[in-house]
Design a protein that fits this description.
Layout: H1 11-57, H2 69-79, H3 97-100, H4 105-114
Helix pairs in contact: 1-4
Amino acid sequence: MSTDTAKPQTLEEANQRYEALKAQLKEGLDRKRQTDHDLTDLESQIYLYEGSYLSSTALSGGNVIRGFDSYLKANAATATGMRVTTSVQPPSSEDRMFSSSSATYQRSLALKMNEPVTENKSSAPSATAQPSGYKLKKKN
């Protein structure tokens, strides 16, 4: 950025200065747009990781959101031969502590909805989607 605040002497100097400032503004807006896109992707990834964590720990006895009170109950139930439920409910929005603590997550969702859909990406994170590179291990 130029700190030269002297008035341009000619129309050509004024046009050059205008074009330079216009280019700087365009570059800054492009960087901001890219940063917003990166933030949106990161928040979507957090949402997906959080959902997979909450889903995978729902039947195993507890997690950091709900607590681990049912951990002992689940072990006692399997030891006595009691039937343990195996249906997993999708995580509720109240359980999504990390996603809901983000001040910009709702704005990121709106940006993601307005983003043009590409071949490999959906416009919003789904409850069943997983972040790339992250695979849940199935228990035998």
